[in-house]
Every structure is written in structure tokens, then in C-alpha cells.
User: Fold this.
Amino acid sequence: MDIVNNSIWKFDILYGLESICSVFDNIYFLRSIGLISDTNLFYRLLNRSELGSKIWLITLVLNIRKDTLELLKLLKLKTKISDELEFQLTKLKMEKIGNYSKDVTLIIKDKLQNSLKIINNSIKDRIFDLIQNLIYLLILLINIGGHYYKSLQRFKHILEIISNMLIVSRVFSTNFNLANF
Assistant:
């Protein structure tokens, strides 16, 4: 029971930190597309303060770890389901299988294919999250220690553009997936 309580406790802390960092991410996004300036009160309080940067850094590292573990679990699950689907397809090709068994096998095949679609969408979401968090981590590290190097500031600008493009492409791909679901 302690393991369950411990993981629930970790989940609650990470969820709280993610909520706080979601505000950081949104304010940073608004600043990077020019809707708010560097002198905006919220931007200065949240993204320039030492406490805000530390909370954001810790949360990004924890999220990267969580996303990586979830991605690995999804990839293992995809492999297992793909193997089972291949087995069911092989079973369908056998000529000695009866009509009832064929019908059941077809149902199982359809369910496995639907599961693979869901898992593939989840994998894509995890990859988006992982890339986005890695980009934010690099931007944060440049914000913390890269004020003295012009080349890092240019690299930060490129990262901001990539991050914004990922956000927009994710919005469009999510809308597309919902329309086809």
C-alpha cells in the first residue's frame, strides 16, 4: 500500500508543478510571439525570478523523465500488440480455421488495429511533449547562464521559433485527429 500512496503523492506533486509551469510556458509563449514584452510584470515575476526558474527547471527535468518512461512503455506495448496482430493475421491465412473462429479472429484483428492507432497517437503526443520540454529546458538554461554569449542568444531565438512551430503543428494535428476519430 505504501508504494501506491508514494506514487500518488509523486503524481500529485508533479501535477502541481506542471500546473505552475503551464503558466510559465503560456507566459513565455505569449512573450515569444510578441503579445507581451520582456517588461511585462508576469513575465518578470515568473520567468526572471530565481524561484520561478528553479521550479521550472525541476519540473522540466521531472517531465522529461516521465515522458521518456511513458514513451518506452508505449513502445513496448506497441510491440506486443503488433506481434499479436501479426499472429492473428497469420491465423486468418490458415485454411483449416472454421467460420466462427474466422469471425472472432477478424474482431480481434480490428480491435488490435484500433489499439495500435490509439497507441501511435499517444506515442506522437509523448514525442511532442518530450521535444517541447527539451526545447524549454535548453531555453531556460540559456536564460540562466547564457546572457554573456551572443551566439547562445541567437540559438535561443531559433529554439523559440521551433517551439512555436511545434505548438502550432500540435494544435493542427490534434484538431485533425479529433476530426478523424
Q: What stands out?
A: The chain has a mean pLDDT of 79. The radius of gyration is 22 Å. The chain is about 90% helix and 0% strand.
